[in-house]
Amino acid sequence: MTRVLSQPYTRExxxxxxxxxxxxxxxxLGPLTGPVAFDDKNRGGSPxxxxxxxxxxxxxxxxxxxxxxxxxxxxxxxxxRQREGFGDGAATTATLYQTVYAEGHRFISAGGNAMLLRxxxxxxxxxxxxxxxxxxxxxxxxxxxxxxxxxLCGDRDIAASLADIFDLLGPHGAIEVRDGGRKLxxxxxxxxxxxxxxxxxxxxxxxxxxxxxLKNTAWLISDFELDDLPALVKLVTAVVQAGxxxxxxxxxxxxxxIIAAQGANSRMEDFRLVYLEPTGLVDEQEAAxxxxxxxxxxxxxxxxxxxxxxxxxxxxxxxxxxxxxxxNRFGIIAGGGGDENAVTQAVDSLExxxxxxxxxxxxxxxRERIGRLRGGSAVLYAAGSSESELRxxxxxxxxxxxxxxxxxxxxxxxxGGTALLRCVKRLRERYEESADLHDKxxxxxxMKAAEAPCRAxxxxxxxxxxxxxxxEIQSGLNGAGYDLxxxxxxxxxxxxxxxSAAALMxxxxxxxxxxxxxxxxxTIVHRVxxxxxxxxxxxxxxxxxxxxxxx
Length: 551
Fold this sequence. Notes:
single chain; alpha/beta; six-stranded mixed beta barrel; three-stranded mixed beta sheet; 19 helices; 17% strand; elongated; disordered C terminus
């Protein structure tokens, strides 16, 4: 039986859910906090200790109160989007979201119009973002990078390693996090690499180790579904006659007959034939093929444009002097046959697209491409004496890397809630200038929201005189803030207590914009046996689609 919940109960239910989830996330805000214990009966054993707001939100799949659960899931989606996109700022987002919703709920209950308030809040959010942009400072030196990393992760060894890596590779550099031993470490690798799938392990027969080294290699880059054996024989013959020592064929799929031919080739000592299939979504595969063609100097051969396996000219093939292939990746170390000027132009174009893009997933793909085309990558080895310690440090490093990228690309703002607190003066000016009831309400709500993260940080650290500290910060110079570790007001940039500007502005957009939208929800419809969304924004793979309305 379907249940419909209408006002005034809708907003009360949403608020209860938002407060419940925010109450689990906000205690992680700041450097002087303890972890949140997550007791999952399905896991068994001791509770999981978490200190990342986005991960905590993701672990909470459903509240017992179905009406409140709707509010919690609205906030959950916003927090995980913040966590995935920027690696930082989920707790700040939760604080802003909870404050804006609570204050907006109070105003609407007193007779305000939800839609007009939403419009005013969104307009005020733009004013806050403009004010935040005025305080952004760029990060350029290794020392500044290390201070930023330390502010983000709180671990000096991780901060030093990441500063070294980003100083060499830049903000778009390819960084892989792997399990190490008991000591943190990192190493650099030359060249570019791609994720891939090897359709048959035949190519590894007789190989010592997990990697094949390829010298003087020709590359066929295509979207073919390769099943033409005579065409393959013709191609291999031409490549051998051209003096190459190996041929790598990248295609969508390979028939059993073609794979059998690879098995016959594996017995040859002076020539190696390797098959690779691209992985990822369609746009990721297309990007991988284009980048590979740029680096090797080959062409991307597509069936839709009339290319076929039986009509491949030598100038369509790419080339490399030194490359490698393992079961999950392949890379080109040196001697790609591509035009360096063309690669440089492609990087410039991708960076321009990245700077204009507001799509988080597109930014990830663009960043990977920029790092790949520039060449060079690093592996950072997490340390720990147990699997739980390794998992914790892997997640910490991964979050810090994401936040570091955005900080290097977009700059930093004073941390500790200071940057948002500095917006209050401008918001108060707009409040005093306004005559419209909903505009004035929005400015008041945003002033409280701008103070909320700083208040939460101080409360989490055990401070009692929150108002006195906030007044002291606001009366200080621009950039002054309260260092919780030192227990006094300092210049936040000089002390390295900073936030990623991109992450903080995204937190403002997600927290304020998400709450403003939630305030306009008028009705909740409960369905019978709704599917449980394991991942925010998605459905489990075994969801009963017969019970889901797609609109």
